[in-house]
């Protein structure tokens, strides 16, 4: 019974040796071959003089002449004599044939026996060389370019690596930025942790994500930049077959390319203004507001977070028009838009959505924070006058706010709630902010 089991095991071992994807050679300490599998014979045959494979050291003498000595002088009774020693078996001919490389591992099993593991690593060496060459090329190119920086990001938007161009562009060294969020490159009020991840998701979905806006340098100064995020696919970039395991990284990662386009800022802004800005005030128009809000709602559906809107309306605006003239009314609207721009964060979207009606989209903002921001804006308007043609025109605004919740089906409903709150603020005497939620709770 025991003999049968042993025999079966022996048979299985022989089969393994025969089929193994590496060359296996068992030899005595002086290299005399006791056993070798077919792959070893195939790998050693082109090297051995007269096709003689009776001695391992003789067969490898032309490519690894010191192996015999290394094995003879190995001091321990067993252990690893050499580990994945790479030797070049044949030279390549550019465009015709690749160079051949063999990896040799030799283990001393005991006082009498050696086991050699041989494998053809030509493809691996070729890929490593290609990678090395690409890295050198990219470094040469990117260190030479003045206004680009290249940054590697992990799946959470943390900076994994960057090249020296980041210092030229931002004044921060690769060591300073490594491990921090890429939000570091943007003004704090222009990005939230959620928006930072949104951009990665949008890059996954569309293949890339492009953003134009201000970036900040280490000294706090700003420059107008375009930043492109592209998901990295190691497998396809390296041309690896699907099963080539070790070099493939399954964790998502991204490349962020930041480009200083300060000189194009004015042109970009005027193009942008044509399509998406209100002609009188220069802030977003109704269309741009709805586009931005729909995009934000799609982001919220993918990754929930508090989101609010505020709507504002100038109080008794007809009286201003009638009392000071229509042009003065325009100046008041312009002033209102300017104050919105100053008072809210860069990531917020203030827009003129009607004659004297304004709205602000407040991403990643709960009701309480929306209330604080809206109140700050109301007070700012109340405490200043607009200078126009030698006149000082005082005005006030009323505001309504609403925060997205599970019960709300879409943007229309959210704006509807904010409008109802605004109506209440008007009814309650103007120059005040109401929230839809306080209406709902007192109803
Ligand atoms: N100057 C100027 N006036 C505008 C513009 N668009 C709308 N208006 C005026 O804004 C006024 C809005 O008036 P109403 O809707 O009656 O409201 P109101 O006088 O502001 O009063 P309440 O909203 O109730 O506080 C109208 O007189 C419009 O003609 C604009 O672009 N420029």
Automatic annotation (TrEMBL):
Gene3D superfamilies: 3.30.70.270, PAS domain. Residues 305-438 form the GGDEF domain. Residues 150-204 form the PAS domain. It catalyses: 2 GTP = 3',3'-c-di-GMP + 2 diphosphate. SUPFAM superfamilies: Nucleotide cyclase, PYP-like sensor domain (PAS domain). It comes from the Bacteria. NCBIfam families: GGDEF, sensory_box. This is diguanylate cyclase.
């Amino acid at each position: 019974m025991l003999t049968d089991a042993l025999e079966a095991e022996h048979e299985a071992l022989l089969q393994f040796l025969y089929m193994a994807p590496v060359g296996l050679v068992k030899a005595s300490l002086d290299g005399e071959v006791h056993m070798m599998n077919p792959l070893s014979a195939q790998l050693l045959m082109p090297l051995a003089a007269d096709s003689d494979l009776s001695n391992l050291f003789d067969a490898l003498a032309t490519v690894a002449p010191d192996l015999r000595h290394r094995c003879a002088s190995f001091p321990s009774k067993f252990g690893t004599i050499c580990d994945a020693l790479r030797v070049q078996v044949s030279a390549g001919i550019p465009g015709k044939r690749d160079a051949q490389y063999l990896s040799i591992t030799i283990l001393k099993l005991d006082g009498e026996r050696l086991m050699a593991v041989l494998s053809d690593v030509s493809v691996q060496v070729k890929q490593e060389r290609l990678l090395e060459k690409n890295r050198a090329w990219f470094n040469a190119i990117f260190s030479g370019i003045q206004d680009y920086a290249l940054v590697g990001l992990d799946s959470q938007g943390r900076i994994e690596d960057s090249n020296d161009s980041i210092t030229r562009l931002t004044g921060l060294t690769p060591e300073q930025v490594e491990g921090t969020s890429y939000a570091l490159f943007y003004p704090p009020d222009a990005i939230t942790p959620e928006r930072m991840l949104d951009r990665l998701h949008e890059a996954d979905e569309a293949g890339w994500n492009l953003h134009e806006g201000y970036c900040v340098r280490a000294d706090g100064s700003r420059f107008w930049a375009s930043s492109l995020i592209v998901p990295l696919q190691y497998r396809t970039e390296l041309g690896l077959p699907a099963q080539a395991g070790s070099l493939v990284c399954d964790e998502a990662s991204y490349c962020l390319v930041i480009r200083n386009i300060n000189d194009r800022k004015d042109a970009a802004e005027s193009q942008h203004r044509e399509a998406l800005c209100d002609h009188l005030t220069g802030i977003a128009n109704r269309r741009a507001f709805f586009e931005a809000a729909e995009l934000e709602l799609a982001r919220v559906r993918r990754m929930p977070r508090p989101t609010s809107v505020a709507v504002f309306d100038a109080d008794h605006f007809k009286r201003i028009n009638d009392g000071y003239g229509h042009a003065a009314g325009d100046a008041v609207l312009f002033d209102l838009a300017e104050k919105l721009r100053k008072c809210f964060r860069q990531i917020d979207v203030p827009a003129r959505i009607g004659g004297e009606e304004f709205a602000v989209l407040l991403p990643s903002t709960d009701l309480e924070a929306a209330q604080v921001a809206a109140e700050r804006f109301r007070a700012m308007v109340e405490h200043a006058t607009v200078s126009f043609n030698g006149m000082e025109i005082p005005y006030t605004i009323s505001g309504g706010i609403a925060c997205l919740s599970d019960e709300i089906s879409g943007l229309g409903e959210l704006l509807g709630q904010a409008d109802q709150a605004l109506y209440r603020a008007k009814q309650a005497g103007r120059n005040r902010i109401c929230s839809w939620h306080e209406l709902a709770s007192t109803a």
